[in-house]
Amino acid sequence: MEDGASTTGTGARPVSLTVSAVPPEPGLYLVATPIGAARDITLRALDVLNTADMLAAEDTRNLRHLLDIHGIPVRGRRLVAYHDHNADRARPAILAALGEGKSVAYASDAGTPLVADPGYRLARDAAEAGFVVRALPGPSAALAALSVSGLPSDRFLFVGFPPAAAGARRKWIASWQKIDATVIVFESPRRVKQLLENLCESEANRTTVICRELTKKFEEVMRGSAAELAERIPEEGLRGEVVMLFGRPEPVVADEGSLRAALEGLLGALPVKAAAAEVAARFGLPRREVYALAVEMKRERE
């Protein structure tokens, strides 16, 4: 999700890897890498990156930078790029290496592999082919944000990146809005304000936390309601990597006032039928009843 790992503070310098590690058994190793501070990597991850037969990464430049920081030489090993645009072409070469009894370390740009990155099919195909698949746990932007958010962590839902189009984004919000869990979202810093404004159309008081640049020099955590944070975010959005979290929904009372308030926020942006369907689903009411109220409200406006 995030940019490659970087050192933090002043006077940072590479740290040499001096411990000799036992080469891993043949298989695919999913290596979690730092989301900001380079020293957040685990010793086991360094061992595997130092000894695996093949290295794979979303961006090989970022992986080379991480290896340089920790003093790990490539030593002529094959370094394969594996990302959304070449996954179908690159996957056979990685599977072939596994078939030859080699160990392959796959690292995302930052954080835990397979969380909002293209490693899912690689891990699935390797497992289905009978190869060993191991996870090397470590940094995760989603879990780091949950830890500092102050929101309940006993039940949470990661929903990835929102759709870019406004209409699709509203439907996407409705898909998780009623779920009794803390919701974790990855969002482009430029679209944070838009997402908050879309949420405010139906739930302006939803408890919201925005985590920016986690573990990096300018780390920032913003807390408040969706409406409060929408006011604080500039029109051009934010800078840096962003994780957004939304607290559990408040109990909804299905009285006429609540229905009118919910419809009011949607009738200007959606057709009457679509607005009624969304509000009916939110309150668990028959669409016909909510549609009749929506038509009445539209007539009142006209």
TrEMBL record:
UniProt gene name: rsmI
GO biological process, one term: methylation
Stated role: Catalyzes the 2'-O-methylation of the ribose of cytidine 1402 (C1402) in 16S rRNA.
Domain RsmI HTH per the UniProt entry, residue ranges: 254-298
Annotated compartments: Cytoplasm
Similarity-based family: Belongs to the methyltransferase superfamily. RsmI family.
E.C. designation(s): 2.1.1.198
Protein name: Ribosomal RNA small subunit methyltransferase I
Domain Tetrapyrrole methylase stretches: 28-230
InterPro entries: 4pyrrol_Mease (IPR000878), 4pyrrol_Methylase_sf (IPR035996), 4pyrrole_Mease_sub1 (IPR014777), 4pyrrole_Mease_sub2 (IPR014776), rRNA_ssu_MeTfrase_I (IPR008189), RsmI_HTH (IPR053910)
Protein species of origin: Paracoccus simplex
Predominant location category: cytoplasm
Reaction it catalyzes: cytidine(1402) in 16S rRNA + S-adenosyl-L-methionine = 2'-O-methylcytidine(1402) in 16S rRNA + S-adenosyl-L-homocysteine + H(+)
SUPFAM superfamilies: Tetrapyrrole methylase
Class of this enzyme: transferase
GO molecular function: methyltransferase activity
Keywords, comma-separated and alphabetical: Cytoplasm, Methyltransferase, rRNA processing, S-adenosyl-L-methionine, Transferase
S-adenosyl-L-methionine listed as a keyword: yes
A Pfam short name: TP_methylase
